[in-house]
Design goal:
This is Osmoprotectant transport system substrate-binding protein. One of its GO terms (cellular component) is ATP-binding cassette (ABC) transporter complex. The structure is a single chain. The protein has 305 residues and is α/β, with parallel strands linked by helices. The protein contains 13 helices and 12 strands. The strands form 4 sheets. Strands 9-8-10-7-11 form a 5-stranded mixed β-sheet. It has a 3-stranded antiparallel β-sheet with strand order 5-12-6.
Length: 305
């Protein structure tokens, strides 16, 4: 639920320092969060457009309650942002239920939303609180062009067992080692692909590679309107490889007071999958700025300042 940016690129773009430990870069420098120490909140986001939109939605809803908020967007994948939240470098993070759970517990196989939520509440790191999830859901989906679906008779992920050897799979680099990715596709569906191309997280590189024929199976997101616009085919997932992926806020437990939790709950109650898809389209297709798109939506729904 994401692509690992090169450390140098993160530093150059954000002007941040990071601390290193076994396994690589894991957090932003905790000294770079003065707002958090003064009572304000820092909202962090992963490095793909929808998560950036969500970060600005969270920030706007919190500002409307009189909280000082800054947004640090495009920080990278979970390997960076989840430890950053745990260490207090950021205070709030928009996440996705199932992908987060499997990041925290590689053996987790819960699928239904309530089951995933209960497991998350027991699995999140100490000092981190998972809040109730939104109606909105954005799931990983495996997509082929209409031509590929017709040529190989592809309707479900089960159909890949006999055909994957002739197909190239494309998605974020993490797909190579994650359950919701090549690992689960092989173990659950017997799909072993001709090749894997590490691209971006459901973004223009992956969509362009699918459109151009460089890959035949793409990991995209269910809220991506370009799937419908291109008449692409989402392969059904009868064995439920992909768990529930409702949007869920993660918050520094020390900052999860009533004002914060109620502001995010009010946002969650109005954020549906359809609304999230519309917001994505404004940014990805219409090239509008995520912060302005978020502000307009909050004002429209009575949640802005």
């Amino acid at each position: 639920m994401k692509r690992r940016l090169a450390a140098a690129a993160i530093l150059a773009c954000l002007g941040l320092t990071v601390t290193a430990c076994a396994g690589g870069l894991t957090s932003l420098d905790p000294k770079r969060n003065p707002l958090s120490k003064s009572g304000g909140l820092v909202v962090g986001t992963a490095n793909f457009s929808e998560n950036v939109i969500l970060g600005h939605l969270y920030a706007g809803a919190l500002r409307a309650k009189g909280i000082t908020v800054t947004v640090k967007q495009n920080l990278g994948s979970r390997e960076i942002i989840v430890p950053a939240l745990k260490q207090g470098d950021i205070d709030v993070l928009p996440e996705y239920q199932g992908s987060l759970l499997q990041f925290l517990d590689k053996n987790a196989r819960q699928s239904a939303a309530e089951d995933v939520q209960q497991a998350l509440e027991k699995t999140v790191p100490q000092g981190v609180k998972v809040l109730p999830y939104a109606a909105a859901e954005n799931k990983d989906v495996y997509v082929v062009t209409r031509e590929t679906a017709t040529r190989y008779g592809l309707k479900t992920l089960e159909d890949l067992r006999a055909n994957a050897k002739d197909l190239v799979f494309g998605g974020p680099a993490e797909d190579k080692t994650r359950w919701v990715g090549l690992v689960g596709l092989k173990e659950l569906y017997g799909a072993e692909f001709k090749d894997f191309k590490a691209l971006d997280t459901g973004g223009p590189l992956t969509r362009g590679a699918l459109r151009g024929g460089d890959i035949q199976v793409a990991n995209l997101f269910s809220t991506d309107v370009t799937i419908t616009n291109n008449n692409w085919v989402i392969l059904e997932d009868p064995k439920k490889l992909v768990p529930a992926q409702h949007i869920v806020p993660l918050v520094n437990e020390a900052k999860a007071n009533t004002t914060v939790t109620e502001a995010l709950a009010a946002l969650n109650s109005k954020l549906t999958t359809e609304e999230l898809s519309k917001l994505d389209a404004k940014v990805d297709n219409d090239k509008e700025d995520p912060d302005r798109v978020a502000k307009a939506w909050l004002d429209q729904h009575g949640l802005g300042s």
